[in-house]
Amino acid sequence: MDVTERFSSRWGLVLASLGMAVGAGNIWRFPRVAAENGGGAFIVAWLVALFVWSIPLLVVELWMGQRTRMGPMGAFFSTLGKAWTWVGGFIAFCSTAIMFYYSVVSGWCVYYLAKSASLGLDVALVEEEWNSFAGSGWSVLSLILSIVLASGIVLLGIKSGIERVLKILIPLLFAVLLMAALYAISLPGSSAGLDRLFSADFYRLMDYRVWLEAFSQSAWSTGAGWGLLLVYSGYSKSKKGLLSNAFITGFGNNLASILAALAIVPTIFALLPAGQAEGVVSGGNEGLAFIWMPKLFLSGKVPGGSVLLILFFSSLAMAAISSLIAMLELGVRTLMDLGLNRRGATLAIGCAGIVFGLPSSLSMDFFKNQDWVWGLGLLLSGALFALGAVVYGIERVRQEIGEGLKNPVVAFWFELMVSFFIPLAFLAMLVWWFYRSFGWEQTRWLNPFVPDNLGTCFAQWGLVLVLLLVFGNWFSKKISASLKK
């Protein structure tokens, strides 16, 4: 088994971790969810979620990755025994299934970047452009392009591929977001957007829905519980700085989200009447990114609007590709733990990404179904990481990490979050999202063929779990043989 690859420095791991965490969801989902759920009140709840859910899980992932230097399946096998191989397998499959449809989003971002850079977007035809693009051959082509691009980087390895690219991509991404945010808040009338984003009606903190949306956003956005940071941490040169790396990843992700919100929400309120602006920020993710932002920047109301649109789609494409690289690497690492070399594993995962990404590329209904099923699966993945740490022994985990967790206050926080609050938050979020699905499909909530309900989650999760249990011994033997090499 190839375990010799390493990041050249801690800085390389940090940049890779930020690339993993900062994705398209920071730019097109966070601004809308924050504006819809109380602005400042939501941000308070979201920051609490960072400390209660995301950072503790990032710490667990870093610990398990550095301890085993394997992917999720191998890490659970090595840490807790072969009976836990299926747990790591579910986590790995969940993140890979997300990669299948996330690569479609990455393709959209790359396509629109090329379209805006070539001045090929017509403000009068933006909505028609999106409606004709989604599900078309161009959507399929952009999917293939994004997979090939990310796979090429992964194929080059950790130091020569992933680290080298992300050393350029991540600082550039933050620079673009910062420039866009500064420009947006300088627009006349942008103060209304700032008020909408940050003014805090703290009475909204009494609304459980604000908390559940905030926890869900933090869980999905930071990458906590995905297994991605586990994989990257296995390539770290040193086992020091684990706790601080988790905090840098969490805060860096939140900073990117805030910058994106500052770039988008003030722009919308500066250029549209208040009533229409409210409708836009409450609209769907795709409409905000691929319809309204081009409309606003190409409306003639913004000096240099075409350049700003290129910057917007540049940030979106960079964030999407950096996260896609991490998802591909997780799949590659998992197959390498089963005995494949990097070339064969990359080819297999890249081809799978294209084949299984096609349905989401051609059908928005299928895309939304996969987003629903495996987006919720990530909450289960996070809970499984916490369960693994509890079974191994929180005290043992804390002692192996050492460093900052030697502080009694920090140690108490970590143990309380992992042992109690994360399982409680998981149950609360899962019940909340299933409850919402009842409202969407009140008469068919157990029908496995409805796109976003309880039945389709249980059917797909159950199928994957059955397959993992059936082939569990085979996976364990492959991992055991790989460890002996």
Task: Give a description of the structure.
By secondary structure, the protein is mainly α. It has a single domain, classed as Up-down Bundle (Amino acid/polyamine transporter I), CATH 1.20.1740. It contains 22 helices and no strands. It has helices at 10-21, 24-28, 30-36, 40-68, 72-80, 85-117, 126-133, 137-155, 158-186, 191-198, 208-222, 228-233, 242-271, 274-281, 285-297, 305-337, 342-362, 364-392, 394-401, 408-440, 454-470, 472-484. α13 runs antiparallel to α14 and α18 packs across α21. The chain starts with 9 loop residues before the first helix and ends with a helix.
Count of distinct strands: 0
| Global geometry | globular
Strand content: under 5%
Q: Could you describe the largest sheet, including whether it forms a barrel? A: none
Continuous helix count? 22
**What share of residues is helical?**
over 70%
Low-confidence stretches: none
Give the radius of gyration.
22 Å
The end-to-end span amounts to: 6 Å
What integer is the average pLDDT? 90
Identify the CATH homologous superfamily.
Amino acid/polyamine transporter I
Would you identify the CATH architecture? Up-down Bundle
Say what the CATH topology is.
Amino acid/polyamine transporter I
The CATH class designation is Mainly Alpha
